[in-house]
Amino acid sequence: MSMSRRKLLAAYVRQNVPVLLATAGWAAIFLVVIALYQLPAESVGYASLLAVLFLLIAGLIRFRRFCKKHRELEELRNQINIPAVPLPETSNLIERDYQELIRLLDRERGRIIYDKDRAYQEMTEYYTIWAHQIKTPIAAMRLLLQSDGAPDKDELHEQLFRIEQYTEMVLQFIRLDGRGSDFVFRTVPLDDCVKQAVRKYAKSFIRKQIRLNYEPVHGQVLTDEKWLVFVIEQILSNALKYTARGEISICMHPGRPNALVIEDTGIGIDPADLPRVFEHGYTGFNGRADKKSTGIGLYLCKRIMDKLSHTIEIESEVGKGTRVILGLEKAPLDVE
User: What is the DSSP pairing of strand 247-252 with strand 211-214?
Assistant: First the structure.
């Protein structure tokens, strides 16, 4: 409810007490000087009347502005429907209006954060449940395929494998953006990580008749084994997807002892697309031609490698193939 005109005037006077005291002091000095010099009363009275009139007009103008600002702030306060912020006490009405607005905005900010956190939690729970539920029909389909002698059995297995892959990608995407930390760092043999990924795609290599050049890599790496294996799997998946014939090679970088290289002889990446391959949702020329690319795989790989304090680089030439370099050097960990 708006303050009455009398209360507004009282608040205005309290706010301008220093100005009123200064004016009164100036008037007192003025009167003392007049008395000492015994100036004519008529001239003094006329000058005083003009001075008082000027002060009244100036005061009324300032008072109107004061009332207008108070009404505007009060209207803003009534439009905002939003824990109290501890602010210093003040006797200034305008400052109190601003403080009340700050409190209301802080409550609204808290409500927005709460609503977003709740919506995110609900979304995460839904997709987590969905990803686990879909595993049941996947398992049932696999059992049926094992007993089915259909001529397109291999193709059905391949499509089922893709469903499993995309489901795993959804789970990893949710975990990566989760509030908690799913990372467990320890020193693991790099060869074990690579072999896990290769075993997963062994049937795809056979089905597409793609040759794998791989010699066991020696060395230990400080990382999270599960997440690093996921990255290697995604790189192999892309290599198989865009390599119609030829080979895929996995080896250590000749000039960097702690860098793993995965190279294919596929269609390559257009130079214009290379700077953006790690962007969320960016598919590039190859993705648009394939019409099945989501633009999520490499984005996830970059996010994961950053969190593992590793690096990922891509070199490519159209028509000759793509080379992915995973830098596994030890570095300060990203603990965001």
Answer: parallel
